[in-house]
Every structure is written in C-alpha cells, then in structure tokens.
UniProtKB/TrEMBL annotation:
Descriptive protein name: Pilin
Highest taxon listed in the record's lineage: Bacteria
Family label: Belongs to the N-Me-Phe pilin family.
One GO CC annotation: pilus
GO biological process: cell adhesion; protein secretion by the type II secretion system
InterPro entries: Bac_GSPG_pilin (IPR000983), N_methyl_site (IPR012902), Pilin (IPR001082), Pilin-like (IPR045584)
This protein's record includes keyword Transmembrane: yes
Transmembrane segments: 12-35
Family annotation (SUPFAM superfamilies): Pili subunits (SSF54523)
Protein's UniProt keywords contain Heme: no
Length: 147
C-alpha cells in the first residue's frame, strides 16, 4: 500500500490551523488596545475642537457686550454639545471665566473634564483625562508641579 495521501484528500492539518488561529489571536491582542486608544484620542480631540471654537465665540461676546457670557445659548447651539457631554460656563469676573466640559459619551472618558480658563493673559487649558492633549495641561502634572 502507498503511504502517501491521495491528491484529492490534501488539505490543512490541525497543527497548521492552530498556528493560524494563534497568529490571529496575537495580532488582535495588539490591535484592539491600539484601536481603543485611537478612539479615545479622537473623542478627546473632538471635544477640544468644539471648545476651541467656543473660545472664539466667547471672545466675540466679550468684545460686543463687555462681559463673559453666562448662558450657553449666546455662544453655541446646545444640540451640538448635548451628544458629547455637559458644558458649564463659570463667570469669574467681568471678562474672565471658565468653560468646563464634562465628557459623557464614552465609558473610558466618562465624567472626565476639559477646562479652558480665560484670564487677562489669555486662555489656559487643563484636563483630567489620561490622554496627551496638544496645548492642554494635565491636572495631575499641574498638581505635581505645585508641590
């Protein structure tokens, strides 16, 4: 008897299939965290973009009325903000104040805040997310530098 397999019965062995499955598992264990980090960074950057556009609107409102706005409706449409989180305007004095945004749309960024503070020297950004946001200082690093 011929010990070779007939040509019509050729296929993949169990070992070959197990190797392919393990390679796919290794690749997905690398890709999933990278993709999650990409989504978090994209969401945080979308919030930053929204808040930067509100900075311009606030500066225009201060030029027109002479005071920091206290109502969201004077600087933006509440509908465009509601999906991403809650925006709070805090008037510190006549021309200075905070734009504080609490993110509520993603489980990993839920209840994290990004705050833009307007003072006589300009705008300053702080946040408590684990992301590195361009032009925005982490509140954890700010607390360390104050100690």
């Amino acid at each position: 008897m011929d010990s070779k397999r007939p040509k019509c019965l050729q296929g993949f062995t169990l070992i070959e299939l197990m190797i392919v499955v393990s390679i796919i598992g290794i690749l997905s264990s690398i890709a999933v965290p990278v993709y999650k980090n990409y989504l978090l960074k994209a969401e945080a950057n979308a919030v930053m973009s929204l808040l930067r556009s509100l900075q311009t609107n606030i500066d225009l409102e201060i030029l027109e009325t002479g005071s920091f706005p206290s109502q969201l409706s004077t600087i933006a449409s509440p509908e465009q903000i509601r999906d991403m989180g809650e925006l709070h305007l805090e008037n510190i004095n006549r021309e200075n104040g905070d734009i504080r945004f609490v993110i509520n749309s993603d489980a990993y960024l839920k209840n994290k805040t990004i705050t833009f503070t307007r003072s006589s020297t300009g705008w300053r950004c702080t946040h408590n997310t684990e992301q590195k946001l361009k032009g925005c200082e982490s509140q954890q690093s700010q607390q360390i530098s104050q100690q």
